[in-house]
Amino acid sequence: MAERVKVGVVGVGKIFPAYVAGCRNFPLLELVALADIDGERASQQAAEHGVPRVLSVDALLADPEIQIVVNLTVPKVHAAVSLAAIAAGKHVYTEKPLAVTRVDGQRIVQAAAERGVRVGSAPDTFLGGGQQTCRKLIDDGWIGEPVAAVAFMMGHGPESWHPNPDFFYQAGGGPLLDMGPYYLTSLINLLGPVRRVAGSARASFPERVATSRQHFGRRLPVEVPTHVAALLDFAAGPVATLITSFDVWHASLPRIEVYGSEGTLSVPDPSIFGGMVRVRRAGAAEWSEMPLLFDDQVGRGIGVADLAYAIHSGRPHRANGELAYHVLDIMQAVEESSDGGQHVTLESSTARPAPLPMGLLRGEMDA
Questions:
Q1: Same CATH topology for 5-125+299-320 and 129-290?
Q2: CB neighbours of residue 255 within 10 Å
Q3: How many CB atoms lie within 10 A of CB 253?
Q4: Which one of 3.20.20.370, 3.40.50.720, 3.65.10.10, 3.30.365.10 gives the CATH number of domain 5-125+299-320?
Q5: pLDDT single digits (tens) 76-106
Q6: Class of domain 129-290
Q7: Are 206 and 225 in contact (CB under 8 A)?
Q8: pLDDT tens digits for 4-33?
Q9: Of 175, 234, 231, the residue nearest 204 (C-alpha)
Q10: Domain spans of the chain?
Q11: Which residues make Cβ contacts (< 8 Å) with residue 212, sequence separation at least 6?
């Protein structure tokens, strides 16, 4: 095995334990340090998860042995932390979204190119068994030529369960920027880049009321749209409908379906690594559940591992900055379309990330 890649994490909120477990699936990665603005919480998490060092953010970024910084801060500071890591000569892998504005997203990608380091970004769920199986089915022609798709993320917001629900309703939050990256990254993996969008968005309620035990009754001002409907014209031809909402109590819609000239593909929840994959070809009397052809027991951190392998080998990594920026550009364009009442043609594009090869052992990626 190649020399282990040392990783430092900034931000130890709710998603942190999932990254610890996911990264430790891959022996190439070594989690050596963490930092958080709440020093007590950082110390508790380090003790609980066996991370050897707790540092200040500045000290973590200055540590010469750390090669990859995993940025798990809240969205509104993603750009500041990523840019600081890049300036320190570190590769960076950030939680989604890449940034909350196009300007900051462009700054991150450009700064990394100038510094000669790489940018990775969540989500990496498209590298799980469910999504990769769907990719292979499309690439192998099971539904013929894709012509259309639908994607739905319908819920009633995180204020009933999340320990820090405020940021979901602040700049950088909302259902589109919070959950949209999962759905858009999945669609791009399956269908390629988006060319043009149209959208309608609204903030249905001026405030939300938290019902979780620790925040029960606290009122949360809403600063962002909470129901967003979008039309996506893909460069390769398909047209997709995407709806993301924090305003829906109940729904019975699919997560994602892709419609092709020879059949339909039912795609599982893009925020998980597995799920049920079904195909119904033209003339079939019923759906057929397809076996997963790739590992669905990987977790958050497979994108970090893919980045580490790519650093060693020089190949492109899959959950990359270009892809994350294209997703951010799409989301910003949807909101601009809603405000301006017209289609918005995107300036960005991206390549479909390379599919995973079959037969990978757990804990390994392709060189």
A1: no
A2: 20
A3: 12
A4: 3.40.50.720
A5: 999 999 999 999 999 999 999 999 999 999 9
A6: alpha beta
A7: no
A8: 999 999 999 999 999 999 999 999 999 999
A9: 175
A10: 5-125+299-320, 129-290
A11: 159, 160, 161, 162, 163, 165
CA dist 225 and 12 (Å) reads 27
**Pairing status of strand 263-267 against strand 91-94:** unpaired
Amino acid letter for position 95: E
